[in-house]
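Ops channel
N.P.: pipeline sanity check, posting one input/output pair.
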């Protein structure tokens, strides 16, 4: 089938996003591609709705206008196709027939289950903040809601966060669909999360000499400082110096050993 000839980048018409041919679609427009997908899912029944080329072009134009007005994304189109393939479109009573626009839009945007979305947000935010990364989001509104709540999300429980989560998620969903909030999920720069070990700085000779002198001074200070818990030994030595007969030789030897005093310097037997 023929495709609209003007490339999207050469026209400001927002419908060209859906109607212009694209290289990655082998020269087809997104709506040409969607036509082919629906024709494949509903053989003969979908194509039978269009008696001539004009009716096909009218269908493409109407759906392009609808997608533009509803700010539908290509990811949502993929969701809709998957739902039709799996028979998961809740609005369609006769699933053997092709959907109209309203039914297909509903398939593109299945209701978000708030509790499941909350648990997804907690799980994926933890992955996002880990060094390994690998977070995957089923809908950008879930990411935006998680980012808006911030750190409270990871320290919360579903019962405690339920009311707040529902409000924030619904707001984000509405803002994205209205085009007031980005549907893009920014990537995390993993390189910024890797901290290399700092390289040791080589000291100059003067710096090393000064550091050695400082260390020696501290060691001397510690050596001269009275040792805690040896007050009994100091008292015994002082008493022995004043009155040698008041302290036994054994007790004096023990006190001097505790204080690190050489017993021979005081004339004591070893």
């Amino acid at each position: 089938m023929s495709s609209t000839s003007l490339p999207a980048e050469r026209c400001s018409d927002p419908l060209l996003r859906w109607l212009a041919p694209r290289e990655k679609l082998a020269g087809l427009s997104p709506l040409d591609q969607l036509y082919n997908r629906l024709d494949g899912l509903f053989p003969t029944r979908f194509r039978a709705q269009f008696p001539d080329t004009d009716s096909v072009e009218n269908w493409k134009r109407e759906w392009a206008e609808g997608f533009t007005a509803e700010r539908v994304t290509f990811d949502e189109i993929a969701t809709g196709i998957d739902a039709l393939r799996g028979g998961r479109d809740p609005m369609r009573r006769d699933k053997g027939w092709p959907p109209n626009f309203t039914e297909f839009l509903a398939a593109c945007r299945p209701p978000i289950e708030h509790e499941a979305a909350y648990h997804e947000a907690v799980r994926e935010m933890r992955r996002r903040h880990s060094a390994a990364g690998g977070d995957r989001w089923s809908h950008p509104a879930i990411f935006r809601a998680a980012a808006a709540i911030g750190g409270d999300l990871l320290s919360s429980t579903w019962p405690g966060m339920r009311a707040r989560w529902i409000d924030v998620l619904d707001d984000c969903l509405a803002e994205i669909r209205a085009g007031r909030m980005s549907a893009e999920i920014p990537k995390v720069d993993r390189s910024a999360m890797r901290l290399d070990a700092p390289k040791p700085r080589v000291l100059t000779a003067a710096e090393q000499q000064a550091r050695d002198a400082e260390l020696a001074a501290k060691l001397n200070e510690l050596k001269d400082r009275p040792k805690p818990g040896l007050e009994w030994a100091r008292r015994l030595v002082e008493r022995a110096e004043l009155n040698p007969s008041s302290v036994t030789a054994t007790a004096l030897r023990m006190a001097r050993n505790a204080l690190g005093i050489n017993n021979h310097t005081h004339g004591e037997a070893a």
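N.P.: looks fine end to end. The mean pLDDT is 84.
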